[in-house]
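Researcher: Next entry in the queue.
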Amino acid sequence: MTLPGPAAVVVRDAEAEVVRMLGGHGRLLADADATEGALSTMRVTLKRGADGATPHYHGGSSELFFVISGRAQVLTGERVVTAGPGDLVVVPPHLPHAFAAAPDSPVDLLIVIAPGVERFEYFRLLERVGRGEASVEDVRAAQDRFDNHFLDSTAWHAARAAARDTPAG
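Model: Structure for this entry, 169 residues:
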């Protein structure tokens, strides 16, 4: 017996849209419109030591980071934690956060935002910035639209500076 309700969302790896990032790429899996607002999810793969997202917060959603492989640095408030394979970090709304590959490791992350926000266009905008087709000001102007509010973090700057000073091994 099938009960009425939404259909399941199935996204095949080969069908996921790939967006380029400075230190790697993202695979756009399911946006809020596909999940009836339940969540937005993507997979991010970064090269060793590469930056992912700068410090920011979301006003209405939690963000989950699950490390598939490698190691990630994740800002959680004013603390930077290093997460390895199988580790999970969940950041509640309004808590500043950021992520990057650890200085000694690439990272493969599953990222989930819940409840979902239409964010795929945000990642496409970032890709256009990387190609010189849009500006950082365009990204800043879209903060409210994508519930992605940028801020500064002394703890994050210190952790990333230390990462850049770590010799490649």
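Model: Residues 1 and 130 are 49 Å apart (CA to CA).
Researcher: Noted, moving on.
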